[in-house]
Every structure is written in structure tokens, then in C-alpha cells.
# Entry
Amino acid sequence: MKNQKIWYKLDAFAKTYSSIISEGRTTCFRLSVLLYEDIEVEILKKAAEDLQEKYPFYNSELKKGIFWNYLQQKNTPLQVVPEIAYPCTEIKKKNPLRILYYKKKISIEIAHFLTDGGGAAAFFRDLIEKYLDLKYFKSEEKLENKEIKHIEYTDLYTKHMRKVNKEKTVKRAFHLPLKILEKGQYHITTGEISVEDLKRESGKYNTTVGKYLLAVYFKVLLEKYSYAKKEIVIGVPVDLRRIFMEETYRNFFINITPSIDPSLGNFMLEEIIKYLDNYFKMKITQKEFYKSIYKAMNPIRNMMIKVVPYIIKRIFFPFIFDYYGERGYTTGFSNLGVFHLDGQYEKHVKGLRFLPPPSKRCKIKAGVISDTEKAYVTFGNLTANHEIEREFFVYLRRRGIKSKIITNY
# Structure
């Protein structure tokens, strides 16, 4: 049994993501936690080892099949290595999940063909709690393993695929007219913001903190690129687990695409928030997501594409991904919401980070994650122009919302 090779089929999104990997589109995203004391590497390795029983799916390597890639479970430990490069700029098919450490920080970088933000957050929460258990509470007890394998193997896109009319979205969005940095660079800007301040301000508009931040992002883009001839479209991932009441450690999300046409003139923040409130109410329903799932799976289910050998698919899949996806986005805005830890662990955590994957088409993306006191808004930027990030935080400051800014450049 020890030599048995366990392998997994890829879900619809994973098939695409694993076929488009490049230096400018690694499909790799990052979660980080900042602690108050330097990381003890041996304890971190022990914590990672304890998680392998619960998350065997994440300890896999990407393999090439005749028609599609697939994942094969490894017999080697999860990789724990020091952080030495720009975030999210390197992805290894043999190690699609890496655990990184640097001074007081633990990070995971994970390929999107393994999972999405919801799946990664579950693993990361267990990693943090196990590390803190071993460091401060001397716990050797392994995490419970309740029906994990049943959850892992579920491809929920296939389960919920229905043949309906395809979703109609903007085919060509406005793209930022900015020059991309040299290969291997990804500029990061994080603003640490008081949750109370954000709740106070978003409460004035009867909206959520997440939609308020998204509206401010729209406002900054609309003011800066008021001359744009095409619509400004922001891709916003939605976790479908809560929509369909399901569990999985694989991908199960869909991007919704709120869009605003700059040619219509100046938009007040109130107008943008009202639009987003109405758009979210209309779009975030099971019936609407059936259309989105059908559209997402359509290229994968196409019989002509199915029978083409993978070596050929690898050539044209980046173009399919661009046509069906990122050509229709100006940028991305991912909100993981509140990252909950049990009270005994919270006192050891100084801060959090969530960084979306880089993309040559969507040159700047934003990721948001919160704890009980602060929201952490992180911009990943493939250019040397940081005006959008600066104007975003300046806009908040003018409304009494201060940010502590941290960058890697």
C-alpha cells in the first residue's frame, strides 16, 4: 500500500489553470500570518507533517496525462522552505503548495489548480493553530480526520453542471495602459485598516465593508481612467460553498463581473454602492450560478477539445482562458472575509495578508482579508506605477479612514 500511487482528476477550473501557467501568470496566490516571535522552523515542519493526514490532496504533484493533467499524491513531506523571492512569482509542478517562513511570518503559496481561497484558508487556519499548539501548548494531538476523503474527491462543478443558457458577460473590458515589470517581480502594497472605521463609513451607505471597499476601488479607477472607451470590469470571486451548501477542498468558486461604463460620466460613490448592492442581489443566486458554471465548463466538455492530446491543448489553452476570462476583466478584487481563529490563538497573531495571483492581463489585483480588529487590503502589481494603490488609500484617508502602509519595493 505504501507504494500505491494515488491520483486525482482535476476539476474544470484546475484543468484550465494547470494548462496556462507561465512566468506572468503563475496562478499562484498567497496567504500570510504575522506573529510576535520568530518562526521556529522545526516546529513548523512538525505542524506541516501533522496536516498531511488530513490534507493528502494538497500534498500532490502535477503530472501530464495524454489528454489532461492530473494530480498524483506524493510520499515526500509538504515543502517548508525560507522565503527568498518575490511573492507568487514561482510555481513548481512538483510542489504546488509551499509553506514559507521569514522572520516572524508564515506564508503558504498555493496553485489555483489545487484549490481556491476558501480551501486554502481552511488549510492555513489548521497550519497556524497546529504550529501555535506545538509551540505554546505542547499539543501532540493530531487534527481530527472526519470524512475528509469524501469531501476532497467531490468535483462540485460537475455535480452542479446543468445545460442552461450561457452567462452573458463583457467580452472586452478596459485594460490598464501600464508597462509590465521585468520577469520575476511582483510589487506588493498592503494597507492595515481599522475594521471599526470601515464599519462606521460603510454604515453611512447601508452596505457591507466588502462592497464599500469594492466601490472605492471602482471610484478610483473611474476617476483615473475617465477617458476609457470600454467598460471597467472587476472580477470578484464568489465562494459557491455557501451558495450550494457544499463542502470541498478543491476549487468551487465563480467570478462575477460588475462593470461600469466611464463614458456615462462621473459616478458618485453612492451611485456605485447602489449599483453593487443591486448587482449582487441579482447575481448571487443558485440559478444565476448555474449559467456561470455551464459557461465555465463549456470548453472542457467540448468533444473536439476533449480528444485533442494535452501537448496541443497546452498551446492554445492560454488563448481560451483569455477569451473566456481575463480579456473581459480590467482587474480583480478578492475578499476572503473574516479569518477566524480560536481565542487562545488570536493573541499570538499580529496580522494577516491575502495576495491574489499575478496576471499579465489584469496587471493590478486586490486581495482583502480581515481579523476582528483590522482589514488588510493588499494590492499585487506587475508594473512600476503605484498610483492606483496610493489613490485608493488617499481616498479612504480623506474620509477619516487611516491606513498603515507596508510595501516590498
Notes: The chain has a mean pLDDT of 89.
